[in-house]
Amino acid sequence: MPAPATSYERIVYKNPSEYHYMKVHLEFQDGGVGLTAAQFKQLLISALKDLFGEVDAALPLDVLTYEEKTLSAILRICSSGLVKLWSSLTLLGSYKGKNCAFRVIQVSPFLLALSGNSRELVLN
Amino acid sequence: MATLRRLREVPRHLLVCEKSNFGHDKSRHRHLVETHYYNYRVSFLIPECGILSKELKDLVMGFGPYYFVKGLPLYELITHEFINTFVKKGSCYALTYNTNIDEDNTVALLPNGKLILSLDKDTYEETGLQGRPSQYSGRKTMRFSAEGSTMMSYFSGYGIQEHQPKIALSTTPDLRCPVLRSGLLGGEPEAACSAHELFDWLGAVFSHADLNNEPYNFVSTCCCPQPSSVVAQASLCSVTGFLLPERICVLLEQLCRYFDEPKLAPWVTLSVQGFADSPVSWRESEHGFQKGGEHLYNFVIFNNRDYWLQMAVGADDDCPP
C-alpha cells in the first residue's frame, strides 16, 4: 500500500559534488592510433604524473565511458583534482611518439548535465 | 600556498532538493516547470517497463515542431505586427542560435513578452539602451517556437525551416536502481539512498556508464549507490530540440498518472536540461556559462504522488527559486 503523503522540505546544497565529470576526446594529428580503455586510463595517469608527480597520479580518477572508435570518454575526478587533471590534459602533447591533443567538450559537477550538449545542436 | 589553494579550487555549484506531494495546494511543481523557459533535452526513466504506453508515446511525438529563422534582424521582434500576431497570444519563445553566452551577443524572447538582450560592451554602447551589467561579466539566426503555419508564412521572407525534436527510445535490461523512500530526502544508511545519490546515478544511466564495477577495477570503480535492487528492465526516453515548458507540464502530468493503476515500479523520473547559452535559467534569473553552463532539474515521481525535485545550477547562476 502506498505510503501517506510526505510533508514539504527543501535543502540547498552548496558545492555538494565530491566529483566533477569531463567529456573529453583524444585527437591524433595523423589519426589511426587505437587505445584500449586501460591504455587510455594509463595515458591520463601518466599525464598527471608528468605534471604533478606520483602523489597526484594517484588521484581518484575513473573512465566512466570510453568509445575506442572515436577515442571519446567521460571521466570522473574528485573535485579537488579537477584543475590538476584539466591542466594535465591540456599539456599532454604526444603518445608513443605521435602528436596528439585532448579536447575538453564538457565539464560539470553533475553527470546528468553531460548526457546532452546544447552547443552540439545543429540546425543548418 | 595561494597557488596550492587555487589548484584545489572547485567552481561553485548548487543543488536544491525539495520533496512534496502533487496533491498539496502549495506545491510549486507546475510553476517551476513553466518558468524554466529554454529547454534542450527532456528525458524520463521508467523502471519495470518494457514498452511505453500509447499515451506516453503520443506525448513524446507531440513535442515539436520548432522553427529556425536565418538572418532575422532583431527589430522584427518589436514590430507591432509581430507583437500582435505572436507575443500577445502568449507561448512565443525565441533564442539566438549558435551564440555562446560567454562570448557573443545573445537574445531571448520570453513568453511574457520581455526581450532579454545579453550584449558585449561595444554592442551595448551602440544600442544606446539602458540596462545593467551582467552579474557574471546582431543580425543573428534565431530559434522560435510559436503557432505553426502562421510562423512559416510570417517569416517566409527570411530562410525559415521547420524542425522536429529528435527522440531516442531504449530499454535497458537488468538495471540496478537505488532504493528510495519518498520521506527521506537525505537518505538513510542501509535503508534508502539520498536525492543527491539518485541524481548522480541517473546521470550515469543516461550517459550509459557501467554501474557494475568492482572496487578494484582499474578503469572505473563507479557503481550504483546502496541500497539498491535490480529491475528486469527499464524504459529510457530522451527528446532533444527546442522544447516548450507547456509540453513538459503535460508530460509530467501523464507520468503522475502512470501510477493510477498498480505498477511494479516504485518511482519514475523526469529530467529536463536547459540550453547552456540561454541568458536566463528560471524566470528572469541571469544565467551564465563559466565552465559548464548547466541548469537542469529532475523530478522523481513516487507511486503515492509524492515527488522529489532536484534543481542544479553552476557557478554563474542564482540559486534556483
Automatic annotation (TrEMBL), chain A:
Q: Which SUPFAM superfamilies match?
A: Rnp2-like
GO MF annotations, alphabetized: ribonuclease P RNA binding
- Which biological process, per GO, is one annotated for this protein? tRNA 5'-leader removal
Q: Per UniProt, which keywords does this protein have? A: Nucleus, tRNA processing
Q: Which domain of life is it from?
A: Eukaryota
Main localization is nucleus
Where does it reside?
A: Nucleus, Nucleolus
Entry GO terms, CC = multimeric ribonuclease P complex; nucleolus
- Record carries keyword tRNA processing: yes
Partners and quaternary state?
RNase P consists of a catalytic RNA moiety and about 10 protein subunits; POP1, POP4, POP5, POP7, RPP14, RPP21, RPP25, RPP30, RPP38 and RPP40. Within the RNase P complex, POP1, POP7 and RPP25 form the 'finger' subcomplex, POP5, RPP14, RPP40 and homodimeric RPP30 form the 'palm' subcomplex, and RPP21, POP4 and RPP38 form the 'wrist' subcomplex. All subunits of the RNase P complex interact with the catalytic RNA.
Query: Which protein family is it in?
Result: Belongs to the eukaryotic/archaeal RNase P protein component 2 family.
Q: What does this protein do?
A: Component of ribonuclease P, a ribonucleoprotein complex that generates mature tRNA molecules by cleaving their 5'-ends.
- What name has this protein been given in UniProt? Ribonuclease P protein subunit p14
Origin species:
Bos mutus grunniens
Q: What is the lineage of its organism?
A: Eukaryota, Metazoa, Chordata, Craniata, Vertebrata
From TrEMBL, chain B:
GO annotation terms (biological process): endonucleolytic cleavage in ITS1 to separate SSU-rRNA from 5.8S rRNA and LSU-rRNA from tricistronic rRNA transcript (SSU-rRNA, 5.8S rRNA, LSU-rRNA); tRNA 5'-leader removal
- A single GO CC term, please? multimeric ribonuclease P complex
| GO molecular function list | ribonuclease MRP activity; ribonuclease P activity
Q: Would you tell me the protein name for this molecule?
A: Ribonuclease P/MRP subunit p40
PANTHER family named among the record's database cross-references? RIBONUCLEASE P PROTEIN SUBUNIT P40 (PTHR15396:SF1)
In Pfam terms, one family for this protein is: Ribonuc_P_40
Q: Which organism is it from?
A: Bos mutus grunniens (Wild yak)
| InterPro entries per the UniProt record, alphabetical | RNase_P_Rpp40
